[in-house]
Amino acid sequence: MGLETGVAVAGLLVGIVAAGLAWAPRRQAGREQGIALFVRVRGHLKGHRAELSTACAEAQTAHRADRELVLLTRPGWIPDRPLPLDAVRMTLRESRPEEQLGSRRADLVRYWPQVPGARRAATYSAAIEAYDRPGVWFNGTSYRLLDVTPPPAGLPRDGLDLAFALGRYFDGLDTTEPLAYEEALRHLRGASAPLRGPFRRGLGSPFALHGRAALPGVSTLTIRVENGGSGGSGGTNGAADDGSDGTGGAYFFMHRRDAGKVAVAMDTTHVAPAGEFQPHADVLPVWHSDLDLWHNTMREYAEEFLGAPDATGGGGVTLDYAHDLPYAHFARAVRDGRVRVRFLGLGLDPLSWKPEICLVCVWDAAAFDEIFAGMGEHNEEGVLVVGARAGDGYRGVPFTAGNVLGYAGHASTLPAGRACLTLAWRWRRELGLL
pLDDT tens across 350-388, in order? Predict the structure, then answer.
């Protein structure tokens, strides 16, 4: 190599190094801007979820078969009265090749910031873990809803058939909850109309469940009943079904979700208990035995009302609901008729299109006070709205029109909670509250 050639090569290398050094601050600035935008959008979603949800519900009236509810529903998804849980027939099957989720995750990469060691976060869950990880964070096995078969026309009490496959919690976080993030991003940037984000438009119908991981939540309204629950404007000996203000002996509980403790639906109010529909252990026998709404609800009661550790894990020791405490107490209360558990309906959250299964548990006060004597106001996801003291426990919020419909009509109450309250008030006579 001649001297001139060597000098030219050296100059080229120096130029390349200089260009790289000059570009590095820009690359770092771009990375920091992406992270800042992600954190800002997450904050916007936490602060404006109620507003975004309301706008989405109003824009999807064509998908609300029951217009009193803000959930998206199809005919037959809401029965004409509360149904026993065995009216919801559930099966577990393998997911099919066309139901895989890789392409959906790829559609969303544009939204996620860079994370250490990678160009961009590959998923929403990876971005949350890097920059907004909540206190409750676990990629547990979950049931993925794939098919809903309503009852034949004219036979609403025949219930529903639901088909599930197994998934993981992050599957839903990565392919369903981004609908809420996308809506928050567009709102933050000044978009005037909801539902027009590219990911949502690519999914098509909200009821096309195969195109994403539609992991249901199970939302349960807890009602504690003294003296049979009779009451109303006529006092304890009489009540009307005309919207009178009160069912004198009935009380209910709500839950304020702490924005720093949960990954979704942050800083909102909801019925309690509520949680993901999941098996408590990732082993084959439990996949099938825990495809059971009452099993799920018992575990949520133990966690949210009694402060027990979240009974959802990766295997090991499995629960015996008939003998392990406190589940045996719950099961005995059902057998003895001291708690009645009813299915209220199924719908989709208007913002995230997450499926929501709505239940109600009506407890005799004596059974409730005995089982939940150690109940606390605080849990790992927020604060319970418990009302006044009742012995060693809590009485709850009076089940009156002002309270029930007040929560049901308030935008900060999650849509599934609003549906539970609306339907329980609609069917308060059938639930034995009048």
Answer: 999 999 999 999 999 999 999 999 887 776 778 898 888
Tens digit of each residue's pLDDT (9 = 90 or more) over 145-184? 999 999 988 787 789 999 999 999 999 999 999 999 999 9
Q: Are 66 and 76 in contact (CB under 8 A)?
A: no
Q: Are strands 217-225 and 254-257 parallel, antiparallel or unpaired?
A: unpaired
Q: For the full predicted model, state whether its pTM sits above 0.70.
A: yes
Distance CA 215, CA 222 (A): 22
On the CB side of 327, CA atoms within 13 Å amount to 18
